[in-house]
Amino acid sequence: MHLLVVEDDLSIAEPLCAGLLREGFSVQHVATGAEATSAGDADLVLLDLGLPDLDGRAVCRALRAESNVPIIVVTARSDEIDRVTLLELGADDYVVKPFGFRELVARIGAVLRRTGASETSGASSTASAIDLGWLRLDRRTRRVTVDDDEVALTPKEFDLLAFLAADVGTIHLRDEIIRDVWDENWWGSTKTLDVHIASLRKKIGATSIVTVRGVGFGLAEHRDAASGER
Ligand code: CA
What is the tens place of the pLDDT at every residue in 94-131? Predict the structure, then answer.
């Protein structure tokens, strides 16, 4: 995955690009709108709206006019941007400065999955059986074993685990999980998600599910590698 980072503030751009490289992305950094619109193809663009040469909104429109590349807008609170404006600009999501790095990575993952740009989403999410060694899950029989012992899950617990297991190691946003496992028109309490996560942890192991507080959850690839919360 090749990311284009458009950010004129080097105190933000440098640690951001270093972090994204560590996450396994290839990263191109530019500091102006003019460079952004003339940069080559990217799989996703992180676009700061406050640029020195061009209005970030115009850059966003120009990028969108050129291609369907997913765009995540980075705004300062003072930009007072709303979802409607973003949709008009053609952006796929946005983060407000100051943002947490883990949250940004989760949002990048969510946008790439939603727009179908992620290479890994297709095959793994349609596989009927998932085998992590310690955990096995079969969608056809709806059976789950942990260390070869069968675990009894409720239907929603199974759906939740199957969703997380389809993309092991990825942090899924709370909204994304609720939309997929419950219903896109779910208006109930989001506490429901926390209750199901807690009961899943009791059944498959406390360190098996990684929490990013206020952001989302992911299934740990190796139980022991997870601290449970980070
Ligand atoms: Ca800026």
Answer: 888 888 898 899 889 988 888 776 544 333 444 678 88
Residues less than 5 Å from ion ligand 1, measured at CB: 8-9, 48, 50
DSSP string, the chain: -EEEEE-S-HHHHHHHHHHHHHTT-EEEEE-SHHHHHHS---SEEEEESB-SSSBHHHHHHHHHHH----EEEEE-GGG---HHHHHHHT-SEEEESS--HHHHHHHHHHHHHHTT--TTHHHHHH-SEEE-SSEEEETTTTEEEETTEEE---HHHHHHHHHHHTTTTPPEEHHHHIIIII-TT--S-THHHHHHHHHHHHHH-GGGEEEETTTEEEE-SSGGG--SB-
> How far apart are the CA of 19 and the centre of ligand 1, in A?
19
Give the CATH number of domain 124-225; options: 3.40.50.720, 2.60.40.1470, 3.40.1190.10, 1.10.10.10: 1.10.10.10
pLDDT per residue as tens digits for the range 158-180: 989 999 998 888 888 888 888 78
Question: Which segment, 7-21, 70-84, 85-99, is predicted with the most confidence on average?
Answer: 7-21
Average pLDDT of the chain is: 84
Pick the CATH number of 2-115 from 3.40.1280.10, 3.40.50.1390, 3.40.50.2300, 3.30.559.10: 3.40.50.2300
Q: Where are the domains of the chain?
A: 2-115, 124-225
Find the 72 Cα to ligand 1 centroid distance in Å.
14
